[in-house]
């Protein structure tokens, strides 16, 4: 537990399911007042808020499209109006789809880039503007992927977006370090989330993924949420501009693990 997080206010985008849900729930358990952002209706958000409150936490839901700057502006205003301030911005919302690069349409390219990269920029920008205006030494956490480093055929738009998020994070961190606004990146590996459910329900496909992970298992959303809680806390007070790979060693060339090569 990070006692310094108690009473702080966070926004988590794309928090209805998967990693966003786990991060929102972990921050709430730490005593953070959490704004749960979601894109679509009927995603179980009300049940999530109720569960957080029954456990003694504070949370509120807000529907917004992360690709629309007015929506993000209203999201930040909602957090401030509801809980009085904004200390932590977690830009988590993201999408992916598999398409051979030669067949990838401009529409599909733009859709993924707009959510995964432009959405991160808009969320970071509005949070930073708020923190500067109110003299808050806050924290921005962006969610990238091991594919900001590992090429991923058939997912060129996704990999490109996540590579962009990494450099976006590093550039913003350098720019706002003098203001003590810390901006960091989490790059998860293979995690057991709904977006991966179909793949991991196939034992053969799951085993093929596990072969790429030196630690030998698929990660849990709670393990990524733990990274976010640490980066949000004062325990990481001297950390800015990093990419924290939470991937079981996937980025460490697993093919060479047994001395091969």
UniProtKB/TrEMBL annotation:
Question: What's in the keyword line of the UniProt record?
Answer: Oxidoreductase
GO: which molecular function terms?
glucose 1-dehydrogenase [NAD(P)+] activity
Q: What is its EC number?
A: 1.1.1.47
First-level EC class: oxidoreductase
Name the source's superkingdom: Bacteria
Q: Which InterPro entries does its entry note?
A: NAD(P)-bd_dom_sf, Sc_DH/Rdtase_CS, SDR_fam
* Coiled-coil ranges from the UniProt annotation: none
* CDD domains in UniProt: GlcDH_SDR_c (cd05358)
What quaternary structure, including any partners, is listed in this protein's UniProt entry? Homotetramer.
Please report which protein family the annotation says this sequence is part of.
Belongs to the short-chain dehydrogenases/reductases (SDR) family.
Q: Which PANTHER family match?
A: OXIDOREDUCTASE, SHORT-CHAIN DEHYDROGENASE/REDUCTASE FAMILY (AFU_ORTHOLOGUE AFUA_5G02870), SHORT-CHAIN DEHYDROGENASE_REDUCTASE FAMILY PROTEIN
| Name listed for the protein in its UniProt record | Glucose 1-dehydrogenase
Organism from which the protein derives: Peribacillus deserti
């Amino acid at each position: 537990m990070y006692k310094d997080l108690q009473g702080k206010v966070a926004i988590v985008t794309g928090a209805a399911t998967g990693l966003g849900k786990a991060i929102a729930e972990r921050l709430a358990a730490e005593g953070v007042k959490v704004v749960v952002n979601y894109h679509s209706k009927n995603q179980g958000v009300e049940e999530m808020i109720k569960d957080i409150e029954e456990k003694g936490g504070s949370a509120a839901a807000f529907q917004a499209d992360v690709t629309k700057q007015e929506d993000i502006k209203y999201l930040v205003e909602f957090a401030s109006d509801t809980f009085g301030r904004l200390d932590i911005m977690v830009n988590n919302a993201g999408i992916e789809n598999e398409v051979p690069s030669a067949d990838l349409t401009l529409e599909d390219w733009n859709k993924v880039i707009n959510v995964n990269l432009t959405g991160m920029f808009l969320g970071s920008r509005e949070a930073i503007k708020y923190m500067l205006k109110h003299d808050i030494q806050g924290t921005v956490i962006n969610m990238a992927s091991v594919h900001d480093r590992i090429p991923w055929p058939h997912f060129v738009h996704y990999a490109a977006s996540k590579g962009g998020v990494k450099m976006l994070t590093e550039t913003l961190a350098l720019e706002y370090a003098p203001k003590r606004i810390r901006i960091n990146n989490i790059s998860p590996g293979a995690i057991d989330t709904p977006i991966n459910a179909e793949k991991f329900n196939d034992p053969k496909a799951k085993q093929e993924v596990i072969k790429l992970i030196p630690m030998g298992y698929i990660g849990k959303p709670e393990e990524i949420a733990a990274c976010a809680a640490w980066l949000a806390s004062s325990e990481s007070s001297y950390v800015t501009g990093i990419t924290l790979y939470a991937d079981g060693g996937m980025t460490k060339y697993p093919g060479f693990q047994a001395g091969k090569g």
